Automatic annotation (TrEMBL):
Protein name: Taurine dioxygenase
Lineage, opening ranks: Bacteria, Pseudomonadati, Pseudomonadota, Alphaproteobacteria, Rhodospirillales
Superkingdom per UniProt: Bacteria
Cofactor dependence: Fe(2+)
GO cellular component terms, semicolon-separated: cytoplasm
EC number: 1.14.11.17
Family listed: Belongs to the TfdA dioxygenase family.
Pfam families: TauD (PF02668)
Domain TauD/TfdA-like span(s) in chain numbering: 11-276
MF annotations from Gene Ontology: metal ion binding; taurine dioxygenase activity
GO biological process: sulfur compound metabolic process
Organism of origin: Azospirillum lipoferum
């Protein structure tokens, strides 16, 4: 039977490796089951979906994201007071961004997020783009002998690498919140190559922000391999870059991508709202 939901929105790729623009959907109204399923298929296929003109209240963004699974409440970043599942990234000269590093979100937990929905609330007149990279394209871009070398390896992902104490000890309350979060987040081990639970595609699963070392290698071996992989993952061929407008919403598959928030908009301010859907344990 044809999927009638497919006719209700359009999906237009914006780069060969990753990213597609979605048109014809109003995300402020509840999605039908078939629309949600079709969107999830488009997301797995394109890894990042760009929606334009989607002015969502925090509750509407929460409800939209919750169609895809259980939401994560971030232990450190500020949230919308009445909607704790919506994290607020309010950056500028008053609060410099710490997302100008390649990363996959929250890989320091056993079940890192599967899907993230980010909404642009206040966008600088120029700058503040976000770049995503496909970890599947990056894996496919490796030679067969290197894939075989990486296949059995596992890596440590460490909360304190992304959230170092020095950045979170400015006042007693911030420091106490950091200590509680650190105690709840011992380092976790994930495979260096993961298999996407829906598509079965293989993807690199290390990132500069959380991955501290490859297990079982010497310090120098681990550092050299990670440095090569971080450099490889960010090659322009594997990436897509988005110039935000207010009320754009970007949905990304956090199981197969990483991203980098370009920090080039000083002295302007930039505000984003994020909803984060938990995923499965990587294998
Ligand atoms: O602000 C951005 O463009 C991305 C920030 C980020 O890393 C995130 O929301 O996970
Ligand atoms: Fe992020």
């Amino acid at each position: 039977m044809p999927d009638i939901a497919l006719s209700t929105f359009t999906v237009t790729p914006v780069s060969p490796a990753i990213g597609a623009r979605v048109g014809g959907l109003d995300l402020s109204r509840p999605l039908s089951d078939s629309e949600a399923a079709a969107l999830e298929r488009a997301l797995v296929a394109h890894q990042v979906l760009f929606f334009e003109n989607q002015p969502l209240t925090p509750k509407a963004q929460r409800d939209f994201a919750a169609r895809f699974g259980q939401l994560h409440v971030h232990p450190i970043y500020p949230k919308v007071p009445e909607q704790p599942e919506i994290m607020v990234l309010d950056t500028g000269p008053h609060n410099p961004s710490d997302n100008d590093v390649w990363h996959t979100d929250v890989t320091c937990i056993e079940t890192p997020p599967a899907i993230v929905a980010l909404s642009g609330k206040l966008i600088p007149p120029i700058g503040g783009d976000t770049v995503w990279a496909s970890n599947i394209a990056a894996y496919n871009g490796l030679s067969e002998p290197i894939r075989r070398l990486l296949e059995p390896l596992k890596a440590l992902h460490d909360f304190t690498r992304s959230f170092p104490e020095w950045r979170h000890n400015g006042d007693p309350e911030t420091h106490a919140r950091w200590k509680t979060a650190r105690d709840k987040h011992p380092a976790v081990v994930h495979p260096v190559i993961r298999t996407h639970p829906v598509s079965g595609a293989k993807a690199l699963f290390v990132n500069e922000n959380f991955t501290s070392r490859i297990v079982g290698l010497s310090d120098r071996e681990s550092a050299a391999i990670l440095e090569f992989l971080y450099d490889h993952i960010s090659r322009p061929e594997f990436t897509v870059r988005w110039r935000w407008k207010e009320d754009d919403l970007v949905l990304w598959d956090n199981r197969s991508t990483q991203h980098y928030a370009v920090n080039d908009y000083s002295p302007h301010r930039r505000i984003m709202h994020r909803a984060t859907v938990l995923g499965d344990r990587p294998y």
